[in-house]
Amino acid sequence: MTLKKRLFRLLASFNKAVLPKQWDRDLLRLSKPRQALAGYRYWVTKNAL
Q1: Residues 6 or more apart from 35 whose CB is under 8 A from it?
Q2: Which DSSP category does 1 fall into?
Q3: How far is CA 23 from the centre of its chain?
Q4: How many domains does the chain have?
Q5: Can you give the pLDDT of all 49 residues of the chain as single tens digits?
Q6: Inter-axis angle of helices 3-18 and 32-48, to 10 degrees?
Q7: Global pTM?
């Protein structure tokens, strides 16, 4: 496993433990900061896989 993948998996586990879930809500109706947070979580998850 590469260092990049390990870093993203560590970030993903941190996100899961600390940041709130956004997927049970309508993503289009979220405020801009919450949309950015959902986008960040998606980006980290995509790179961790």
Answers
A1: 27
A2: -
A3: 11
A4: 1
A5: 799 999 999 999 998 888 877 777 788 888 999 889 889 999 999 999 9
A6: 140
A7: 0.78
